[in-house]
Amino acid sequence: MPIQGKKLSAQQLEQVYQLLEDSSSKKVISGLNKLRQHKLDYKIISYLVGMSWFYPDTKIRRRIKHLIFKEVSDDYASFLKGKWRYLPTPTLPKVWTLIEEVVKHPQIDAGIIRQWAYREYLTNPELKLNNLKLQYLSSELATFKHLKVLDLAHNHLLTLPPEFGKLKKLDTLSLAHNQIAVLPTEIRKLKSLKKLDLSANKGMNNLPGDLSNWAKLVWLDLSYNSFKTLPLGICNLPKLKELNIAHNEIKQLPKAAKQLKRLKKLNWSANELSSLSIESLLLLENLTTLDISGNLLEELPLKLKKLPCLKQVTIHNMPALAKQRHQLKKNFAPIELIF
Fold first, then answer.
1. Which UniProt keyword terms apply here (predicted)?
2. Containing domain of residue 306, as a range?
3. Has residue 144 been placed in a domain?
4. How many CB atoms lie within 10 A of CB 284?
């Protein structure tokens, strides 16, 4: 049962928090001793729970645990005992799993637990969660609104939570090598995006409608997917400079591609092209680099020279064109052909 004592004033509580935050174990213990003289509410207890999970000193964690279990009600003690653990340097997914459980208790202050759980992450604008075999993302992701770079590549994700749309500062996102067939509409809320990697998501063959919010996007990778046509929303990306659609089934570009005024690099390799839709390409007036390697072309249209800014064309793994190497280089000069 809780001990009897006076409740801490706001000023006293702040002083205790400062002591508990101190790097000196002696001062931390002093702060814990001050708490023993007072009646603890669940805000303070929540703070101590977080501290006990993530504080590195074993002796201090033991004292915190003793103090908490002396203060809390029996039902809360029973709840905690099932969740009690020390997490020295946990991966974020493990922390998420823990917090998803503790926030179910009506008396827990999840915000305070998060202060301890995420303290090393909340000052870092970059978060790498790649190669962790993740199958889902927790709604806890909403806490990371400060993020600018998020790497979720090489996991087993099937979808993204609605909270994903709250990462408004995100400018670089990798979802490469997952199993996301359909992107949720919330991803359109990421207005700060500059680089987006959606490569190798197997069943992905479309993007969610209007992408005008991605007005800052300059780099987009859709390679190794199942696109049969280029999503029209991409044509509304005014700053897009690099587009990778390699290893899809896109046979031509839509007329709306002429809106891609800043597109300079296009990777259209391995799309089983037997003929090149030159009319589509001529819409890209500022294109400087084109990769059409690994297609089925037997000729390279001389009209490509009409692209005023074109400087380089890559045509690897194309036997029919390789046989014409010398003549093609002569015909297309000063454009560089890379065989």
1. Leucine-rich repeat, Repeat
2. 169-338
3. no
4. 22
